[in-house]
Amino acid sequence: MRHVDEFRSSSTCLRLLKQIRETASVPWVLMDVCGGQTHGLVKSGIEQTLAGVVELIHGPGCPVCVTPAEAIDFAIQLVTEENVLLATFGDMVRVPGSRQSLMQARSMGADVRVIYSPIDAVTLAQQHPDRQVVLFAVGFETTAPATALAVLQASEQRLGNFSLLVSHVRVQPAMEAILQMPDCRVQAFLAAGHVATVTGFHELGSLSDRYHVPVVVTGFEPVDLLMGILDCVEQLEAGSCRVSNQYGRHVQQRGNRAAQAIVERVYQVATTPWRGFGQIVEGGLRLREPFASFDACNRFQSLAETAERDPDVCRAADVMAGRIKPKQCPEFGITCTPDAPRGAPMVSSEGACAAYYRFQNRPPQ
Amino acid sequence: MCLGVPGQVIEWLQRDPTFGLAVVEFAGVRRQIHMACVPEAGVGDYVVVHAGIAICHVDEAEAARTLAEFARLEQLHTDADSSLQSDSESDGLTS
Fold first, then answer.
1. Which of residues 23-52 of B touch A (CB under 8 A)?
2. What CATH number should be reported for the domain holding residue B54?
3. How many domains would you assign to chain B?
4. Can you count the helices (H) and strands (E) in chain B?
5. Does some domain include residue B79?
6. What is the DSSP letter of A132?
7. What residues of chain A lie within 8 A of the CB of B48, using their CB?
């Protein structure tokens, strides 16, 4: 596939690995904040190959993993008590809420549909005019244009049976929250490439300056990931810090203005709860006033207020803050597996625990 | 979650700020893709698609520049290696 295969060249990877080994004088700690990159690093063997050369830790890069349990509980209430047709991404249906997952609710008869695109939820609303269709809208800035576009399409078509349960999150405030943690070990960030296709990277400059950390926008193929790591290591060795872009074929400094305009028309920035992190200032999105009628929390208000809130049992928060690696969790691979997950990072195809289970499948010795 | 796949625009089906739609091909597979975020994309251009919508235009010149840079570095290293009898074969991805 063009623009993919060229960035998987093994000879280029070997050159870059050699260069990283020659450059790194100490095992610098780099954090990625994108589940796709976490998987790329573990699947390609980069994480293991560079063990002892650089330490790669994985931040809250999986939006499904940081969706609060109460949002899932509310979604389950919608499908079980209000006979709603709920549409969402495949990862989301398997994440446990306080009591059960959407998949378990579906196995008991609830109408939960897995969609590829948020626009498919609009189509479902057109096809089922007698049903209330709710799109469980999760994702980073990469996905926000698609759910915002679904709202605009539904609005122009005056669909009265379509609404959204919005649980969108923003990466940069989460990066900042991690840097503010007293036990933060992050020395440089690999910034999420596809988020940056939409947002650009001009705003990451102040983060890099204020916390004195290199931030390198990175892609997903092995060559992209190694270029990002090398750039971080070179900056750290030189004692410098700046934002740089190693994903130039897809990412412009100012991002995609058309996509930003669509998101800004529909959503406004909001302080939101992240599973395992608590409230993150400006950490999410909510619908703007003109689209308030599309907010499932307004449409099904009585339910929203009664949603249950139970404490989490899994150590996802420690994994996503980079305090422990997945295999350091005592439950990893023993009581917690992708078939019987105790928490979201083991469920989602992009969760850090699932990546280690799939590609480094050995419980701790 | 943030998976993005580059594909080539084959044909515009509908030009509209909200409902813009085009056929995009991914390694021989064709799909209808929403184009509201890349209204400027022309037939033959590459776009990155995420969750059924194109989220950005691929910068062909930049992709070519990066690859040329890799090729240049590779050549430099190959030349250096052949003169120094490097042990680079011992480096490598383990899995």
1. 26-27, 34, 36-39, 46, 48, 50-52
2. 2.30.30.140
3. 1
4. 1, 5
5. no
6. -
7. 194, 197, 250
Tokens of A123: 């189509």
Q: At residue A196, what is the residue type?
A: A
Chain position carrying tokens 């008991």: A108
d(CA A355, CA A320): 13
Q: Give the span between the Cα atoms of A159 and A156, in whole angstroms.
A: 8
**Residue B87 domain-assigned (yes or no):** no
3-state secondary structure of A337: coil
pTM for this predicted structure: 0.90
Exposed/middle/buried for residue A6 (C-beta within 10 Å: 0-12, 13-18, 19+): middle
Q: Is residue B24, in this structure, part of any structural domain at all?
A: yes
Tens digits of residue pLDDT in A185-229:
999 999 999 999 999 999 999 999 999 999 999 999 999 999 999
- Whole-angstrom distance, CA of residue A29 vs CA of residue A236: 10
The verdict on B81 touching A (C-beta cutoff 8 Å) is no
Distance CA(A65)–CA(A94), nearest Å, equals 11
Backbone torsions φ then ψ of B83, nearest 5 degrees = -85, -25
Mean pLDDT of chain A: 92
> Tens digits of per-residue pLDDT, A9-36?
899 999 999 999 999 999 999 999 999 9
Which residue type, as a one-letter code, is found at position B38?
V
Give the structural domain span for B43.
5-58
d(CA A66, CA A169): 8
Q: How buried is A212 (Cβ within 10 angstroms: 0-12 exposed, 13-18 middle, 19+ buried)?
A: exposed
Which structure tokens are listed for A350?
A: 């992009």
CA distance A309 to A278: 13
A69-167+279-300, what's its fold? Rossmann fold (3.40.50)
Question: Which ranges in chain B belong to alpha helices (H)?
Answer: 60-84
Tell me which chain B residue has its CA closest to the CA of residue A45: B95
Return the domain boundaries, chain A: 69-167+279-300
Model pLDDT for residues A129-140, shown as the tens digit of each residue: 999 999 999 999
